[in-house]
Design the sequence.
């Protein structure tokens, strides 16, 4: 199972449900992980302990303009070489069309800052580093929402995830010859705290109504796919967007 032995992977938003699952899966495949967190150091330290110290923790506020570059500098400082970047950190903001101009603009700016701009800034840092070391991998955790559109109460989320998918495609097309590949993973509903909040409010039937298999994805499904995508032999997945939505969006 040591498909990723010798690899160091930076995972943003690593203390959330999907991020923690990705971290565990990568370590179980032999990688060392740089566990990014924003404010909950205790959760990051617990996760590092859980993976028996197979990595490092790094704090950065990705909603700040310099958050991504600060994170990358920390990653290189502790690990020396980073072989792959997993842009997993993301937020989802509820904002109505009737909101004030100030609230509307703030929601869009913060959501794009975390979901897209931070990922773009990290890629900007990572690509020269990857080139200097003979190649590297980028995996973007996008969303079904970025492909089929999203609810009127959360327009920034779908728009930012669509842009994240395009970022991955553009990197794949532009830097493949440099040994740098990029893959997008687009989940539908995943059984995380965000999903549980929705279920508590509206019921599970509402959450899975448009999912043919009748279940949300487990965080481990996303994590296992990330670990597979990062295997050294998976070069030809470059540019792909992989759907993990139970059949609720079929291209």
Sequence:
């Amino acid at each position: 199972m040591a498909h990723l032995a010798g690899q160091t992977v930076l995972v943003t938003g690593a203390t959330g449900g999907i991020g923690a699952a990705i971290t565990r899966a990568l370590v179980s495949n032999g990688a060392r992980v740089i566990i990014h967190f924003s404010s909950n150091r205790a959760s990051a330290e617990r996760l590092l302990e859980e993976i028996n110290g197979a990595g490092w923790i790094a704090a950065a506020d990705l909603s700040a303009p310099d958050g991504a570059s600060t994170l990358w500098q920390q990653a290189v400082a502790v690990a020396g070489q980073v072989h792959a970047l997993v842009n997993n950190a993301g937020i989802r903001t509820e904002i109505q069309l009737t909101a004030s101009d100030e609230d509307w603009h703030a929601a869009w700016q913060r959501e794009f800052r975390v979901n897209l701009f931070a990922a773009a800034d990290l890629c900007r840092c990572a690509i020269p580093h990857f080139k200097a070391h003979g190649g590297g991998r980028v995996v973007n955790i996008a969303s079904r929402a970025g492909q089929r559109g999203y609810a009127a109460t959360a327009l920034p989320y779908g728009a930012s995830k669509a842009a994240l998918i395009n970022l991955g495609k553009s990197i794949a097309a532009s830097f493949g010859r440099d040994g740098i590949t990029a893959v997008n993973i687009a989940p539908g509903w995943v059984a995380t705290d965000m999903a549980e909040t929705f279920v508590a409010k509206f019921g599970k039937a509402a959450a899975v109504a448009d999912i043919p298999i009748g279940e949300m994805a487990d965080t481990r499904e996303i994590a296992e796919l990330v670990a597979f995508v990062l295997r050294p032999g998976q070069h030809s997945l470059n540019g792909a967007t992989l759907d993990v939505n139970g059949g609720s969006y079929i291209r």
Summary: DSSP finds nine helices and seven strands in the chain.
